[in-house]
Amino acid sequence: MHSQTIQAISEEYATRRKQFKKVKLRWRVSTGSRRSLGWLPFKASALTYRNGQVWLSGIATPLSLWDSYRLSQCKLGAGSIAEDVRGRWYLNITVKVPKAAPTDGRADLGIYLGLKDFAGFSDDAIDNIEAPQFYRDLESVLAVVQRANKISRVKTIHAKIANCRKDFQHKLSTTLVRRYGAIFVGNVNASALAQTRMPKSVLDAGWSQFRSMLQYKCDDAGGWFVEVN
After folding, report:
1. pLDDT tens readout for residues 166-199
2. From CA 191, how far away is CA 179, in angstroms rounded?
3. Among residues 169, 183, 176, 178, which one has the least CA distance to residue 225?
4. 68-80 per-position pLDDT tens digit
């Protein structure tokens, strides 16, 4: 590994130790059936892009990719090579792009996040969105393969649940950002509610992920995003 990778891992470890106020962390260890996912960070100076290929310091062979985002026109930043739960590896790169100026003149929207209705809206022209049951729809199938100890199948089902949730939230957030110039969302504390009698429903809703999507899409489109109490 390149020395920058060692430095980035050390910085992350120090940050998490300070965050959780612990001298020692059980951090990225492999014990029994529990294994942390692979993660190799790198800094911007270790990355070079040319002719549809990415070159990383310390790796002799370049990584070819389909440049659908026109990376040649962007200034590349830091990133990482990360593993998902199914053992697939992805190259994650941050890029620096000009921030759009806030726009005026478009309507605003208030959103209330819930469990029975995933989202309620201040605009009467939009019907409330019923909360999808991504996890519960596949819970019975998941239980069968877990009892059969089919590890790879369990990972596939969990990945399908996560992908379905992301697909739903991406489509909804994109539609709202294109239509409204200012979006106000309640800062529902998902972590606290997950400790109550309804943890499955709270975690299945994915409120934090949805708010993050709204935030960066508003930034990209020049819209306003505000979390309110």
Report:
1. 999 999 999 999 999 999 998 888 777 777 777 8
2. 30
3. 183
4. 777 778 888 888 9
**Contact by Cβ (8 Å): 56, 65:** no
Select from 172, 193, 195, 201 the least CA-distant residue to 111: 172
Cα 192 from Cα 162, distance rounded (Å): 21
User: Which two three-digit tokens encode residue 114?
Assistant: 């819930």
Tell me how far the alpha carbon of residue 35 is from its chain's centroid.
20
**Structure tokens, 109:** 């929207």
Judge whether 135 and 200 are in contact, CB under 8 Å.
yes
| Sheet hosting strand 224-228, strand order edge to edge | 129-130, 117-121, 108-113, 182-186, 224-228
Instruction: Encode 116-154: b = buried (16+ Cβ within 10 Å), e = exposed.
Output: eebbbbeeeebeebebbebbeebeeebeebeeeeeeeee
The angle subtended at Cα 191 by Cα 187 and Cα 194, nearest 5°, is 120
In this prediction the pTM is 0.74
Which is it for strands 108-113 and 182-186: parallel, antiparallel or unpaired? parallel
CA Rg value for the chain: 21
